[in-house]
Amino acid sequence: MSNAQGDWIWFELMTTDPDAAQAFYAGILGWTASPGGVPGMDYRILATADSQVAGLMKISDDMAPGPAWLGYLAVDDVDASSQAIEGDGGAIHMPPTTLPGVGRMAMVADPQGVPVYLMRGESDDTSTAFRQCDGPDTTHALGHVVWCELATPDPDAAIDFHARHLGWRQEGSVPMGELGEYRFLHAAAGCFGAMTGTPPGAPAGWLFYFHVPEIDEAARRIRDAGGTIIDEPMAIPGGDYALSARDPQGARFGLVGPRTSASD
């Protein structure tokens, strides 16, 4: 893929019940699903009306860490990046592997233990799985990941680590009380998310936020479909609202969207 080093290029839901998860997210985000064409694996491609946004993969009931959303980051050289990350205190969970027709990938973790995939896609196309959600018209971003949030026990070390290996930079922040600063993260294409300390009792990890047309309606659909709201919709800079939730299988995710006057 033509995305720059450090860009988010794909997102993947690992779940114990693909049929139930497919129906749940279709009701929340309007996704359709199609076979991923991976031999011997139940892998599905989730898409909005105009582009592919994520993958859906079946895992066994006892596979750690259980149902979860993971992200893929573009790198120029999967092998070299994996080795550099391991040599800098990180870990390789899945060694560099080539999937014919897709690309080369590896799963790594930073020194705080947070996993992520590295990938160099075979296609020359630019991934649009992540889309910026700014400006007066954000309909192009509906159903896409629009914000990536990292909770980590050592934000200073994590910022330095990701700057060395992915070219990220940290610019700007807002205070978050006992969690420290909410620090905004930038890649070559601009700001994509933020980093903060790990809340007490919560695991370190990435939380991916999808864009919805109306936040309260989305929250209602989550509850009606058997999901759980973790953090109720709260106002965020720019006028939208954000929430975090768990799907019925236990995977955490976030939503961002406006609150219309009819819902006030």
Helix-strand pattern: EHEEEEHEEEEHEEEEHEEE
Number of helices: 4
Compute the average pLDDT.
93
The N- and C-terminal alpha carbons lie at a distance of: 43 Å
Query: Count the strands?
Result: 16
Please state the overall shape, judged from the principal axes of the Cα atoms: globular
- What share of the residues lie within helices? 10-25%
Oligomerization state: single chain
Percentage of β-strand residues: 35-45%
Find the CATH superfamily of the largest domain: 2,3-Dihydroxybiphenyl 1,2-Dioxygenase, domain 1
CATH fold call of the largest domain: 2,3-Dihydroxybiphenyl 1,2-Dioxygenase, domain 1
Strands of the biggest beta sheet: in what spatial order? 2-3-4-1-5-8-7-6
Radius of gyration: 18 Å
Spans where pLDDT lies below 50 across 5 or more residues: none
Which class do the helix and strand fractions yield?
alpha+beta
Describe the structure.
The protein has two domains: 114 residues, 2,3-Dihydroxybiphenyl 1,2-Dioxygenase, domain 1, CATH 3.10.180.10; 125 residues, 2,3-Dihydroxybiphenyl 1,2-Dioxygenase, domain 1 (Roll). The radius of gyration is 18 Å and the shape is globular. The model has no long low-confidence stretch (mean pLDDT 93). It is α+β, with helices and mostly antiparallel strands. Strands 2-3-4-1-5-8-7-6 form an eight-stranded mixed sheet, with helices on one face. An eight-stranded mixed sheet has the order 10-11-12-9-13-16-15-14, with helices on one face.
